[in-house]
């Protein structure tokens, strides 16, 4: 080439026409690097090698070219590509064959998709997970594990190969949640989330917005459903019960339901402290149809409380309640404390859990020094102590748990006398971090936009994690300090662990606490800290990439108890109740944190022995102490308890004699002793008498024989009577009572009110009962559970620090038994300054307040009145107080209808709303808005604002004839204005050559057709629907399966083209007939335009030529040699034994037959039958039998047969005893024995019975029967010791004999007891 010419690789001839390519053969070597080392001596070999390299370098500098044609160049390029592809496939194969490369972490090939369904429908979540080893799959709902086997009626989880699904049946509103699937193997964990939104149908939503969402128990609909009104009566009631730890206690009542309806049973529910009880290993319930029984197995102090039986019927419910006290079990060592109670686990993480408990009521002979916490792994029985030194605080962090394992815990108290019994074990808890199961903290609601978006963290493997945030000290005691923090935002998928560092205040040195192993949980408990010293703490994150930066320090924290002991409760006041009980009230402890409750103790005056009244702490400041001695004089004291310990005991109450309280004052004045507290002088010797005027509630205090010098302070008296007791509202099955606070509060604030009632039957008044066991803080009360046709009398009592005051005037009401269940006043006895307080009663026909949600999602309450008078107005109230603030509600009234519109519904609007129409005969109604009801209304409002188009079927795809592809879906309903938008990979597509769309609005079917699938058609197809305000979306993802679908489409089109001309319906095939003939057949369809005819050559035998016949004969020889013509081994039973034989179709003399067996038998050939005979088979004939046949060319081994005695007996119909008889029978002397054995045999065997090998004869003592040729029985009347022995049932026919043996043992209980006494 010329020096300045541009280098080209095209070879040209003289006419400048390209004739090929110029390919460089060697790369140009630009130079050799020579070492500049000093060489002192050069050898011959060195000089030769140097000259060789220099010559090769010079040759390499010259560019050698070679002319190649274009076809040769293309061929060589194709060969190089094929070689490289082969090497890559071989490399991939070697990688797959490597076991280390086969294992990989789980990976979601197809993630579950969020779905929106209608209420009552089923929904199914699908996903595909890859991974090796095969990952374990777990489903969660809002981070709570779903146990599909325990709730099979709700969930169905399936796993087929790598495809997994979760089916949710009969969806309701509470199934709206985020469902999380977790896949875990040894290589790692992967997870995915799908949201399920359950919509409420329009027909259901209309009913839901009227009135309350939970139908009232006494609604008119339920009452008339069966056409009767049920009356419930509870008799044989259980009283206040006492039990001890470890015992079993049963509570029961007899329930009478009138009238009796066939196959109708009421709902019986048991409650403990107003919490429904569920059957467990500790609680058993039984309902026989008349009696309800609750059994408490192995009582514990956790079982103490108020037990209530509630019987629900279609017409209402009835309840009965009584208290159950559980005493401590006897201690083994005198003076040790009793067991703690209520052990619970909180804040469980991967290696950390917090255990809490409640202190016992009895500390023993000395104060409790601390507690030991024990743990046990579920499935084992080994208990390990978690703390070496007793902890005083009733809360302890347990560390060192193994992730993924379940544990239970128990607690023991210790004092100077010893260690108590262990408490009841806690519920099992799993050492697992919830954040590892679900990265999203899902709430009870789901997005309402109609489009669910998923976000995932970017992989950050190999990045050092960031610093933790919000490091705080959550607990600090003398024994330990607990730190908590939030994980860093950048932590990757591999997870992080933590190092904790501490620093003593005044120093600059940070010390690592956990130097050995980093912790996995964002919680850590530090022990062995010096009490009183100040520390600072910080945390570092670490992973496989390294240790991150330290977090901000917590600041100085002084080691010591942060929680103070509670203060002593106020002075207790004891009030008579019954002959065996006393009501004790006291003042609450002031400024107490985390109060657990109160323990009440009692003591008989004159003794110094204090006994606990309750073994489970109570939180209220009023308690009824039962189990007292009638007529004895008791004093009481109270102590509070929290996690830090016990408070000081309150002062002792005044002594009270246990006897029934006085129900009625005989005089206008009553005399009682008022306790007094004096300062700066000894207690008073004379009594202070207080006279209370019962009518005007004015208190006059008179002092007699008072000889004092100095000042004193007098404790407050009980409050006066509440006034203005009225019936504020009465409707259906409830009424609302209201009253005013008493004019005289007794010198202290009113702490609450108690409403009492009694029934009046035939003019006879019953006993007073408390409606509420806990004091009311409001001056109104809603009375429920009233029975029709009964009269009720109510009064109200006020309570302050000194106790409960006198009752108010009575309010007498009568409840009719009419269908409407209205409540009427028959008489009103309110003697307050002679004024009759007004009340509101809803007359018959009054409508209820109902809730309405319009199309714009506006929520309002509506009340209608058709009996408006002149000057009548609607007056709305909240919690029975007139609404004056219009910021929350906008009230619009017109034409006998009033609407209260919620401006911005929120939790502030919860309460009871009532509406009264003035100038009418008491027309009113009320509606209670609960938190659950508000949430449901907000959901309905959202549905009305943003409606969703329902789909009958999600988008699906199917292959049609000619390879066409059809995408389709169907909506449940739509209007004529509904529009569809077709989208592929976020791009709107329109109808053309490639796509054909169709939308049939009458049937709701949406279709899109494609002639064929191509590689570029992989992606997401979406149908977006808009129908007014309603919207709907359905999608189908075609990723990964595109090539396979494309092949199916091409094959379908090729098949269609092939079938346009003559083609095979059935291809050429052969079959062998039982006569050892070979049949060749095929089926062809000939097409002439529209004329089709089928040809079956199996019937055209004449078309086969002579050559073909010879070939078929050869096939017969090759396919069916003589040995192959033998049949399978068959079994024949004879009277002499068993014959095994095989029939040969083509038999000749050269056929050699050999039988393989373990024992000598007789064999031979008869005609075309090869046989082997076994006469009188025994145990020795057990073994494996097979037959070898050889015809000189080929051989065959026929079916092997495992022949044993059972096979022998089953083949021969010999007599035998099939069952029914035991091996040993033990029976008491004097009883009767009857045994029956099952007999088999053909012909029918002879039956006999033997005793000690002697034949028995049927008589009065032995009755022998043989019925239906199958059942043989023996009856021994009044057995004695002489009947003991070895019996046998013997059966016999011509094929054999068998005996079923058994042993009878007769014993005398008195002789057995005397033998045991002699041994002792």
TrEMBL record:
Keyword presence, Cytoplasm:
yes
The superkingdom of the source organism is: Eukaryota
Record's keyword terms, sorted: Cytoplasm, Immunoglobulin domain, Muscle protein, Repeat, Thick filament
Q: Which GO terms describe its molecular function?
A: kinase binding; structural molecule activity
UniProt key word Lipid metabolism: no
Q: Which Pfam families match?
A: fn3, I-set
Task: List each copy of the Ig-like domain by range.
Answer: 106-199, 216-325, 838-930, 1227-1305
Major localization listed first in the record, in broad terms:
cytoplasm
Q: Which InterPro entries does the annotation name?
A: FN3_dom (IPR003961), FN3_sf (IPR036116), Ig-like_dom (IPR007110), Ig-like_dom_sf (IPR036179), Ig-like_fold (IPR013783), Ig_I-set (IPR013098), Ig_sub (IPR003599), Ig_sub2 (IPR003598)
Q: Which residues form the Fibronectin type-III domain?
A: 339-433, 467-562, 568-661, 718-818
Q: Name one GO cellular component term.
A: myosin filament
Q: Which GO terms describe its biological process?
A: sarcomere organization
The subcellular location is: Cytoplasm
PANTHER family xrefs: MYOMESIN-1, TITIN
For this entry, the protein name equals Myomesin 1a (skelemin)
Origin organism is Astatotilapia calliptera (Eastern happy)
């Amino acid at each position: 080439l010329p020096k300045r010419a541009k280098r080209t690789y095209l070879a040209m001839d003289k006419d400048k026409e390209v004739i090929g390519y110029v390919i460089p053969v060697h790369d140009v070597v630009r130079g050799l690097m020579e070492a500049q080392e000093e060489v002192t001596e050069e050898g011959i070999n060195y000089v030769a090698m140097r000259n060789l390299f220099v010559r090769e370098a010079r040759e390499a500098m010259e560019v050698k070219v070679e002319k190649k044609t274009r076809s040769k160049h293309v061929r060589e390029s194709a060969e190089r590509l094929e070689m490289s592809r082969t090497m890559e496939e071989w490399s991939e194969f070697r990688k797959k064959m490597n076991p280390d490369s086969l294992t990989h972490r789980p990976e979601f090939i197809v993630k579950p998709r969020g779905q929106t369904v209608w209420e009552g429908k089923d929904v199914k979540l699908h996903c595909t997970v890859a991974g090796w080893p095969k990952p374990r799959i777990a489903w969660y709902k809002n981070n709570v594990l779903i146990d599909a086997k325990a709730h099979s009626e709700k969930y169905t989880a399936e796993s087929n190969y790598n495809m997994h699904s979760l089916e949710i049946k009969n969806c309701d509103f509470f199934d709206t949640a985020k469902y999380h699937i977790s896949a875990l193997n040894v290589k790692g964990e992967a997870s995915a989330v799908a949201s399920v939104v359950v919509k409420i149908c329009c027909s259901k939503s209309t009913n839901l917005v009227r009135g309350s969402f939970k139908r009232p128990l006494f609604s008119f609909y339920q009452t008339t459903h069966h056409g009767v009104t049920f009356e419930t009566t509870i008799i044989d009631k259980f009283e206040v019960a006492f039990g001890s730890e470890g015992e079993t206690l049963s509570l029961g009542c007899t329930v009478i339901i009138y009238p009796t309806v066939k196959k109708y049973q009421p709902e019986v529910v048991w409650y403990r402290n107003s919490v429904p009880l569920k059957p467990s290993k500790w609680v058993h319930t039984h309902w026989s149809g008349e009696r309800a029984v609750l059994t408490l197995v192995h009582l514990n102090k956790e079982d103490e409380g108020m037990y209530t039986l509630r019987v629900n019927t279609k017409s209402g419910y009835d309840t009965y309640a009584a208290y159950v006290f559980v005493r401590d079990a006897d201690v083994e060592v005198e003076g040790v404390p009793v067991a703690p109670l209520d052990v619970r686990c909180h804040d469980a993480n991967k290696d950390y859990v917090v255990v809490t408990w409640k202190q016992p009521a009895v500390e023993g002979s000395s104060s409790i020094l601390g507690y030991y916490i024990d743990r046990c792994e579920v499935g084992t029985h080994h208990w390990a102590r978690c703390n070496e030194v007793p902890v005083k605080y009733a809360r302890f962090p347990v560390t060192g748990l193994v992730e993924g394992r379940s544990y239970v815990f128990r607690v023991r108290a210790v004092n100077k006398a010893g260690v108590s019994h262990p408490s009841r074990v806690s519920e099992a808890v799993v050492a697992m971090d919830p954040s590892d199961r679900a990265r999203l903290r899902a709430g009870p609601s789901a997005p309402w936009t109609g489009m669910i978006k998923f976000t995932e963290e970017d992989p950050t493997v190999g990045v050092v994690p960031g610093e933790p945030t919000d490091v705080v000290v959550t607990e600090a005691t003398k024994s330990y300090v607990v730190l908590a923090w939030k994980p860093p935002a950048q932590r990757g998928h591999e997870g992080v662990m933590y190092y904790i560092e501490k620093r003593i205040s005044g120093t600059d040195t940070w010390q690592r606490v956990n130097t050995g192993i980093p912790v996995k949980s964002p919680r850590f408990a530090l022990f062995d800290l010096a009490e009183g010293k100040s520390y600072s703490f910080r945390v570092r994150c670490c992973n496989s990439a390294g240790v991150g930066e330290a977090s901000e320090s917590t600041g100085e924290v002084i080691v010591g108890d942060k929680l103070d002991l509670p203060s002593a409760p106020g002075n207790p006041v004891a009030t008579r109740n019954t002959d065996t009980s006393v009501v004790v009230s006291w003042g609450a402890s002031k400024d107490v944190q985390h109060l657990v409750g109160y323990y009440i103790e009692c003591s008989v005056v004159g003794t110094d022995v204090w006994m606990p009244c309750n073994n489970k702490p109570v939180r209220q400041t009023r308690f009824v102490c039962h189990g007292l001695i009638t007529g004895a004089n008791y004093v009481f004291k109270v102590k509070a308890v929290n996690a830090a310990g016990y408070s000081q005991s309150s002062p002792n109450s005044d002594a009270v004699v246990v006897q029934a309280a006085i129900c009625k004052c005989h005089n206008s004045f009553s005399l009682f002793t008022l306790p007094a507290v004096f300062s700066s002088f000894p207690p008073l010797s004379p009594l202070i008498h207080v006279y209370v005027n019962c009518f005007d509630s004015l208190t006059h205090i008179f002092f007699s024989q008072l000889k004092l010098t100095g000042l004193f302070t007098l404790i407050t008296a009980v409050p006066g009577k509440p006034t203005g007791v009225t019936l504020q509202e009465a409707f259906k099955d409830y009424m609302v009572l209201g009253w005013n606070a008493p004019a005289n509060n007794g010198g202290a604030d009113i702490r609450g009110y108690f409403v009492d009632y009694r029934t009046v039957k035939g003019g006879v008044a019953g006993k007073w009962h408390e409606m509420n066991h806990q004091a009311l803080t409001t001056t109104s009360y809603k009375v429920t559970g009233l029975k029709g046709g009964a009269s009720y009398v109510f009064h109200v009592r006020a309570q302050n620090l000194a106790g409960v005051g006198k009752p108010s005037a009575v309010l007498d009401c009568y409840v009719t038994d009419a269908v409407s269940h209205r409540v009427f006043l028959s008489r009103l006895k309110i003697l307050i300054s002679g004024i009759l307080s007004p009340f509101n009663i809803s007359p018959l026909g009054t409508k209820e307040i109902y809730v309405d949600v319009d199309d714009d999602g506006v929520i309002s309450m509506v009340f209608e009145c058709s009996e408006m008078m002149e000057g009548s107005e609607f007056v709305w109230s909240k919690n029975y107080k007139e609404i004056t603030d219009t910021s929350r509600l906008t009230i619009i009234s017109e034409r006998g209808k009033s609407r209260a519109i919620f401006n911005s519904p929120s939790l502030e609007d919860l309460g009871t709303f009532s509406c009264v129409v003035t100038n009418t005969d008491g027309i009113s109604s009320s509606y209670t808005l609960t938190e659950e009801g508000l949430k449901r209304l907000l959901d309905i409002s959202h549905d009305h604002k943003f409606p969703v188009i329902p789909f009958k079927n999600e988008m699906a795809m199917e292959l049609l004839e000619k390879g066409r592809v059809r995408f389709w879906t169907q909506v449940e309903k739509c209007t004529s204005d509904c529009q569809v938008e077709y989208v592929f990979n976020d791009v709107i597509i329109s109808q053309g050559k490639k796509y054909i769309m169709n939308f049939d609005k009458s049937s709701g079917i949406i279709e899109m057709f494609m002639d064929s699938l191509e590689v570029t058609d992989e992606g997401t197809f979406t149908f977006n629907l808009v129908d007014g305000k309603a919207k709907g979306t359905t999608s189908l993802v075609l990723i990964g399966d595109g090539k396979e679908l494309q092949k199916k489409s091409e094959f379908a089109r090729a098949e269609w083209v092939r079938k346009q001309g003559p083609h095979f319906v059935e291809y050429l095939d052969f079959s062998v007939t039982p006569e050892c003939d070979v049949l060749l057949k095929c089926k062809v369809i000939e097409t002439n335009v529209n004329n089709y005819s089928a040809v079956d050559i199996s019937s055209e035998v004449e078309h086969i030529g002579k050559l073909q016949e010879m070939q078929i004969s050869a096939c017969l020889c090759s396919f069916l040699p003589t040995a192959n013509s033998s049949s399978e081994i068959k079994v024949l039973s004879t009277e002499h034994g068993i014959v095994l034989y095989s029939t040969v179709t083509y038999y000749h003399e050269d056929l050699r037959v050999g039988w393989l067996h373990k024992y000598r038998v007789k064999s031979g050939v008869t005609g075309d039958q090869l046989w082997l005979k076994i006469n009188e088979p025994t145990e020795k004939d057990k073994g494996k039998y097979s037959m070898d046949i050889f015809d000189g060319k080929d051989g065959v081994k026929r079916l092997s047969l495992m022949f044993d005695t059972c096979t022998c007996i089953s083949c021969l119909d010999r007599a035998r005893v099939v069952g029914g008889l035991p091996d040993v029978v033990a029976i008491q002397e004097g009883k009767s024995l009857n045994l029956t054995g099952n007999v088999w045999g053909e012909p029918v065997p002879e039956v006999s019975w033997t005793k000690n090998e002697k034949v028995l004869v049927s008589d009065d003592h032995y009755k022998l029967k043989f019925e239906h040729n199958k059942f043989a029985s023996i009856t021994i009347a009044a057995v004695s010791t002489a009947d003991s022995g070895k019996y046998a049932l013997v059966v016999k026919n011509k094929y054999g004999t068998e005996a079923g043996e058994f042993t009878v043992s007769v014993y005398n209980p008195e002789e057995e007891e005397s033998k045991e006494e002699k041994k002792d």
